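Example record for the data management plan.
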Amino acid sequence: MTNKTVPVVPSFPDDVRAAIRAAAQLLEHVSDSARLDAEYLMAHALGVERDRLLLDPTRYQTPNDYAAFIQRRLAQEPAAYIVGYRDFWTLRLAVGPGVLIPRPDSETLIEAMLGACDDVQAPLRVLDLGTGPGTLLLAALSELPSATGLGVDASAAALEFARRNADAAGLSRRTDFRLGDWGAGIDTQFDIILCNPPYIGDDEILQADVADYEPRDALFAGPDGLDDYRRLIPQFDDLLADNGMALLEIGYTQAKVVGDLAEKAGFSARCFADLAGRDRALMLKRIASSE
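Corresponding structural encoding:
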């Protein structure tokens, strides 16, 4: 963890709006979303939803523990770890140390999946490789009412969060979670494979709230960030059912190189952009053999 001096947070005014403004000014040095962080941490300290807080902030007074939450954020602890959750798709997912925090960009995979499903009511089988806190699997099953799914992760801590989130979402009867190394040892085929693998190069510089707190194994993938794609893509031929699809998250500069790896393994690759217009996901399907 980076060694740095963190300023001691003074007490905040009782007025919630003034306290949020003061906290946002402090957080500008460590966060690209300082105002949003200040609001979320205030809502958490008050035990209310952010939208309720913003609707009528005059109803509340700044609680004593708000300063402690801001102090932790100034030390660049992720806001999601402080509040204990991150909203993703339509779900609220519990997260904490040892688990990758879900990102809005990953919703691109769910949108692409739904656009390609001819019948969301069909009894589909879904596999989420590197499931973390159940992010992609639970979002997919929430939209596919007859589907069942398996989430695999190399982290026992992440799987504990995934099981907890499945229970909270009412999806535990349709999910199974397994400790594993990508697709190794899985002898079942799936209609849909979802995967957000590590894709950052080992020498790339990340913000401290990511690099110092989130699990390194979920972020970095060799010198060029492609190590896990090289391992994963060849496994898909055994894991995909006939007419199945695999959806892979990618770094925004990686569409061509990962697409080339897919084509060499016998898959077509279609790219999908995130809300910012950046390449974010590839849909892989078997290339039909010519006879």
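Summary line stored alongside the record: The domain at 89-286 is CATH 3.40.50.150 (Rossmann fold).
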